[in-house]
Amino acid sequence: MKAIGKNVTVFDVYDRAKSGPKMEEKDWDFKLIPQTARKLKDKYGIKMDKKTIIPEDKELIDKLFNAGLEMLVECGVYCMDTGRVIKYTKDEVLHAIKAAPDHFTYGEGKEAINVVPRSYNSPKAPVIQGGPTGSPCSEELFLAIHQSYAQERIIDAMVDGVLQTVMGKDPSPGSPWEILAVRSEAIQVREAQLRAGRKGMGT
């Protein structure tokens, strides 16, 4: 009888970030990742058609999934704060995939959308997130930029940008200005959506 998989908790991840294999970030980025990718590409015989953005060949899809699973287990996830690699077992990854929710609601009210998995050949339209997506925006134009995205009805949800300055100050990490900038971003994004008639839009 196969053992039931165990959920990996935030406490497990924290402990592994403190005790995982020590490694320089550049070695993980520029040695382990590309070397493992090349090895798995050869192992699974993966050949990509550059003209096909999303592969539809089922055999290739299976190869890509298995190679990706093996790469995650072998390479782990790098933690920059501790300089260590957080490792997961194959069973843990597969259990997490199986335990993942099959849908969730994003947004509120009439702007709420139901997000569900889509197969590569699904006729269902994908969820479209629009916005500056982490790009720096000036204080003067932040509100207008986000309103322009919210006004586009094709967009289901928004990914906001970041303020370059707040009250003319640099919102450097760890400073009170950073906290003020994040608060201001949230307020202005909501205001932009309200002005565009998209109150409750997922962000």
Automatic annotation (TrEMBL):
Keywords: Methyltransferase, Transferase
GO MF annotations in UniProt: methyltransferase activity
UniProt xrefs under Pfam families: MtmB
Organism of derivation: Desulfosporosinus hippei DSM 8344
Keyword Methyltransferase in annotation: yes
GO biological process terms on file: methylation
InterPro entries: MtmB_MeTrfase, MtmB_sf
Transmembrane segments: none
Name used for this protein in its record: Monomethylamine:corrinoid methyltransferase
Record flagged with keyword DNA damage: no
SUPFAM superfamilies assigned to the protein according to its UniProt record, in alphabetical order: Monomethylamine methyltransferase MtmB
